[in-house]
Each structure stands twice: as structure tokens, then as C-alpha cells.
Amino acid sequence: MSATGFDATQQRRRVRRSALLWTLVAAAFYFGFIVLAVVRGLR
């Protein structure tokens, strides 16, 4: 494999990892707001 192919593979892996990270961050906010709403609703 050429150096550019290796770079493309590394970049694809880095993009996939950052997309997964941002998805987890967004899900944490989403579920956090749901839990907050439920807790406030129970008061």
C-alpha cells in the first residue's frame, strides 16, 4: 500500500473515532436532559 493509502486509512479511522465520540457526547446530553426533566417532574 502506498503512503497516501495509509494516510487515507488513518484519516478514515480518525474521522470515525471522532464521529463516535461526538455521538456519545450528544447522547450523554440527551439522556442527561431526560433524567433532569424526570427528576424535576417528580418534585
Would you kindly provide a written description of the structure presented here, covering whatever features stand out?
- It is a single chain.
- The protein is mostly helical and 43 residues long.
- It has one domain (1-43).
- 93% of the residues lie in helices and 0% in strands.
- It contains 1 helix and no strands.
- The protein has one helix at residues 3-42.
- The chain starts with a helix and ends with a helix.
Fold topology:
Blueprint: H1 3-42
Largest sheet: none
Averaged pLDDT, please? 92
Radius of gyration, whole Å = 19 Å
- Total domain units: 1
Count the DSSP helices: 1
Gross morphology is: rod-shaped
Q: Could you estimate the helical fraction of the residues in percent? A: over 70%
State the low-pLDDT regions, or none: none
Q: How large is the share of residues in beta strands?
A: under 5%
Ends apart, CA distance between termini: 62 Å
User: What structural category do the secondary elements indicate?
Assistant: mainly alpha
Summarize the structure.
The chain is mainly α and 43 residues long. It contains one helix and no strands. The protein has one domain (1-43).
